Amino acid sequence: MNPAYLKHHKLLLRLKLRHSLSRIQTACRKRKSRIIIGKLTRNPVFKKARNVLTYVALPDEVETREFILKALKSGKNVFVPAVERARKRIRIYRIESLRRDLRKGAYGIDEPLKKKARLGDPKCLDLILVPGLGFDRMGRRLGRGAGYYDRFLKRASGVVKVGIAFKEQVVKKIPTAKHDVRLDDVITD
């Protein structure tokens, strides 16, 4: 696919998906998030995982705080990403508490307090929860456009990668480029 066409197609799809997400009421978003997190925590991949990476949700994403609490309570090592804008990369840090170990970081996203948290290695992970604006059933994902996750996921080869999304975020086909990394599964409400 022509790179200019691909970029334009992704831009239009991002606009459409943002509009769809904006139409989900807060109460509905919370209910749908609980359903998705319930499916995820019953999944054998989660049950077997010892080291889990999850994002901390933005207001329009599947809420992940309940997932983090469940993972911590079940004795899993929970890692959260931190964006390093200057280097255009994600680094991961282990957290032990939502309250004590997080603060607002890049793009207004809660990130680990690097002084308190321990730096993690992507290769030690068993499961990665991947955010996105859109997904398809073939594991293709449309992110927010900065490429942080695709660069990170390349360093975590062999780790199970799962997208969690509202049904409104699943489309027939996500346009992809060579550098886009496919997910192993997408869990929806």
The gist of it:
The protein is of the alpha/beta class and 189 residues long. It has six helices and eleven strands. A seven-stranded mixed β-sheet has the order 6-3-2-1-7-10-11, sandwiched between helices. Strands 4-5 form a two-stranded antiparallel ribbon.
Detail the topology: elements first, then pairings.
Elements: H1 3-22, H2 26-42, H3 44-48, E1 51-53, H4 65-73, E2 77-84, E3 89-95, H5 98-101, E4 102-104, E5 110-112, E6 118-119, E7 127-130, E8 134-135, E9 141-142, H6 148-154, E10 160-165, E11 185-188
Parallel strand pairs: 1-2, 1-7, 7-10, 10-11
Antiparallel strand pairs: 2-3, 3-6, 4-5, 8-9
Helix pairs in contact: 2-4
Q: Work out the number of β strands.
A: 11
Oligomer type: single chain
Q: What is the alpha-carbon Rg in Å?
A: 16 Å
Helix content: 25-40%
Shape: globular
With strands numbered from the N-terminus, the spatial order across the biggest sheet is 6-3-2-1-7-10-11
Class from secondary-structure proportions: alpha/beta
Our count of helices gives 6
Query: What is the typical, i.e. mean, pLDDT?
Result: 94
Report low-confidence residues grouped into runs of 5 or more. none
Work out the strand percent. Answer: 15-25%
Q: What string, H for helix and E for strand, traces the elements in order? A: HHHEHEEHEEEEEEHEE
Biggest sheet, in brief? 7 strands, mixed
Name the features:
globular; alpha/beta; 189 residues; 11 strands; two-stranded antiparallel ribbon
Polypeptide structure, described:
The protein is of the alpha/beta class. Helix content is 33%, strand content 23%. It has helices spanning 3-22, 26-42, 44-48, 65-73, 98-101, 148-154, and strands spanning 51-53, 77-84, 89-95, 102-104, 110-112, 118-119, 127-130, 134-135, 141-142, 160-165, 185-188. The chain starts with a helix and ends with a strand. The model has no long low-confidence stretch (mean pLDDT 94).
